[in-house]
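Tutorial, part two.
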Amino acid sequence: MCVCLPAMGQKKTSMKTLESQRAQLEKEIATLNRQLAQNSKNSSEAMSSLTLVRSKISAREKLIAGCDQTLRMLNDSIRTCQGEIDRLQARYDTLSLYYGRLIRGSYKNRDSRLWYMYLLSSESLGQGLRRFGYLRNLSNEMSEQAVKIRETQAELEVERERLSILKEQAEEMRQKIVQERSSLKSEEAEHNRLVEKLNKDRKKYQQQLQEKNKQKEALNRKIAELIRQQQQQASKGNKGKTGSKTTSTEIDTKLSNEFASNKGRLPWPVEGAIIERFGKHKHPVYQNVDLPQNNGVTLAVKRGTQAKAVFNGTVTQIVVLPGYNQCVLVSHGAYFTLYSKLKSVAVKVGQKVTTGQVVGTVDTIGGEDQFHFELWNGSTPQNPENWLRQ
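Running the prediction step on this input gives:
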C-alpha cells in the first residue's frame, strides 16, 4: 500500500479513509476468492458461486471507484505541488538576481581604500555616521539575501522530492486501476458463464433453490416463534414485580435504551464479505422468481471464524436448523440478535454475554464458510447494516 502525501490536511484525512476502505475491500475480495476456489470443486454449487461472483464484482467496482478518487486527489496534489515549486523558483530567481547585483556592486568597490575615502570625505560627523550605516546595512543585506536564497533552495528541494513521490504514487495507482479493471472484466465473464449454466440446467438448479428457500422460510418462522415465546415469558415474569425497587421491566428498558442508542455503532459479529443482504429480492437469473424474505445478512468468512456478541445481553435459545446448523439467540432487552451457521457454541442458555464475547465458531456447510446474522426489534426484523458500524 502506498504512502500518500497530499497537500492539505483535509485531503490527508480523505486519503487515509480511502486507503482504509481499499484495504477492507481487498480483504473481502480475498475471502470471496477463497470461497470460490472451494466451490469450484463442487459443480452443483453454480448458484452459490454466482452469488459470490456477484458480490466480488460489486466489491471490485467499489475498489476501482475508490482508486479513481485517490488518483484524482493525487493529481490535484501534484498540480498544487507544481504550483508551489513554480512560486519558489520565481522567488529563488528574483533573490539570486538581486544578490548578484549586490555582489557585482561590492566587487567594483572591493578596494578597502575606496570605502575609507568614502567615509573620510564626509562633510560632517552626521554624514559620516550615515555613510557608515549604509555600508553596514549593505553588508547585512548581502548576508540576509544569501540566507534567504539558501532557505528557498532548501524548500525547493523538499517540494521537488514531494512532487517526485506524488508522481510515483499516481503512476502506481494508474497501474492498479488497469489491473483491477482487467480482473473485473474476467469476473464479469465468469458471471456470464455461470448465468448461462444456470439457464441451461434450470430444472436442476431450481430444485436446489427450492430446498434452500424452504430452509430460509423455516428459519424465519422459528426465530419469529422463539422471539414471541420470549416476549410472552418476559411479560408473565414481570407481573407482580412492580412493587420492588428494580423490576425486570426496568432492567429490560434500560438495556433496550442502551442498545438503541448504539444504532450505527455496534461492532460486526464477524469479519467477512456480505453476499446476501436484508429484505426481499428477485432471483438474479430467474427474474420471475421471488426469493424468501431475508431477515438478516449473510457473510462469506474465513474458515474457523469466531462469531462475537455485538452487545451485552442474555442467551435465550440455542437451536439447530437444517442449512443453518446451530443458532444462538441473544436478547438485549426488547432487542434480539441471532448468530447462525455455527459449528460449535461457546455459550449456554441463560448465560449473560458481553460485547465482543465469542458466541461460537462458524461451520463449513456444503463446502461453504458462511455466517448468517439477524437483528430484531421485538417481533420486527431490522436491517443489520443500519445498526452495525460502517
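The domain at 205-387 is CATH 2.70.70.10 (Glucose Permease (Domain IIA)). In part three we will examine how such features are distributed along the chain.
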